[in-house]
Amino acid sequence: MTCPYCKEAARFVNYRTKTFTRLLGDLRFERAYYHCDQCGQGSFPWDQTLRLSPQPSGAAALRAL
Questions:
Q1: What is the distance, to the nearest Å, from the Cα of residue 47 to the centroid of all Cα atoms in its chain?
Q2: Is residue 31 part of a domain?
Q3: Counted domains in the chain
Q4: Euclidean distance between CA atoms 1 and 45, whole angstroms
Q5: Which residues touch 63 (CB under 8 Å, ≥6 apart)?
Q6: Is 20 inside any structural domain?
């Protein structure tokens, strides 16, 4: 995978869990985490592809509280 920050090669580290709180309950899934040794940044490619927020809760669930 190419690092989205410096465009160098990033290595797969492991899968990490993310939980989203929605109006109908929690949604939890695992996604791949990559780290770039060149710039020191980590990334979750699917988060960017799916336009997921780095925050744990969805906006609708926060408004409902």
A1: 4
A2: yes
A3: 1
A4: 9
A5: none
A6: yes
The string over 16-36, giving b where at least 16 C-beta atoms fall within 10 Å of a residue's C-beta and e elsewhere, is eebebbeeeeeeeeeeebbeb
The number of beta carbons lying within 10 Å of the beta carbon of residue 10 is 23
Q: Which residues are registered as beta bridge partners of 2?
A: 9
Question: Residue 12: what pLDDT?
Answer: 98
Query: Does a structural domain hold residue 44?
Result: yes
Question: What residue numbers bound the domain in which 28 lies?
Answer: 11-64
Which positions ≥6 away from 59 have C-beta within 8 Å? 53
pLDDT, tens digit, 9 for 90 and up, residues 6-44: 999 999 999 999 888 878 888 888 999 999 999 999 999
Amino acid at 21: T
Q: Please check whether residue 48 lies inside any domain of the structure.
A: yes
Query: Given pLDDT bands bounded at 50, 70 and 90, which one contains residue 63?
Result: low
